Amino acid sequence: MKEFLKRKNIEFSAKRYGIDALGAMAQGLFCSLLIGTIISTLGQQLAIQYLIDIGNYAKSVSGPAMAVAIGYALKADPMVLFSLAAVGWAANAEGGAGGPLAVLIIAIIAAECGKAVSKETKIDILVTPGVTILIGVALAKVIAPPIGAGASAFGNMIDQATRLQPFWMGIAVSVLVGVALTLPISSAAICQVLKLTGLAGGAAVAGCCAQMVGFAVMSFRENRWGGLVSQGLGTSMLQMPNIVRNPRIWIPATLASAITGPIATCVFGLQMNGAAINSGMGTCGLCGPIGVWTGWLAPSKDALAKGAVAIAPTGFDWLGMLLICFVLPALLSWIFCEICRKLGWIKEGDLLLPQ
Questions:
Q1: Is CB count within 10 Å lower at the N or C end of the chain?
Q2: How far apart are CA 206 and CA 201, in angstroms?
């Protein structure tokens, strides 16, 4: 059995399923739901139906995009990979509000089953897609609805808790989602699975921006402009090798997120009512702030289900977004970093990105 699994490149591991597959799913979401939301919102604001149609088409294939991305991360053979489009569509549709989590679980199982039979028979063109689709869609019919209900209930619980305790939940959501963004897992996928919008989504945006902008600014002396752009608009995950060597370099950005989170929820009432995936993107491609903006103008379906309404943003709203997403993370992380440098916790070169 070990030889068979090795030959089929089937690896049962937390890294393969919890990091590689989850990260790929977020990329699939980005290339369908997220970019589609941005394009359709632009179309709505500019009154260009063509852009609205393009965005809607992109959003409609989020299930297949996620499943195919997961299959790619699992190194599925072409016949398996292409068959996962149908599996993703079924799992996302049957999973309802928790569709992305259903897609993640079901696509992994269907892909591994498809890989197991791939190229094992002379009628591979029938067997491989047949097994992949039959198993995947059957699972979607059976387990996707309860998975979706569970994920939706947990996300609603976080949302309600944040409304009831905006200070403490603002800290918790901001810190935890921000840490997830820097870890080699996908905070974007987690937020999409939990449908994290509203006030909780705003706290998540705050935490993610604190990590990305924080590391970009406090490591400027080591990494200069290239590091500022790659971390501030790319990902703070680039610092993981340095964090492993010296975990204390994580203190400034994490402290900043613990401050900006409750400021977002209690002072500015910052809500992220765009696509839930934006809550976990931070300043990556400016997706976090864009999600806040699109949520103001045209709340997503998930946000509308929680009672969100379109608003005309005021100067106070814009000020809150700028402070939470850019100004405060930069200022607070720099101050905390300088304190850590004076204490000897962070030394010269500790934040230098690998070349």
A1: C
A2: 9
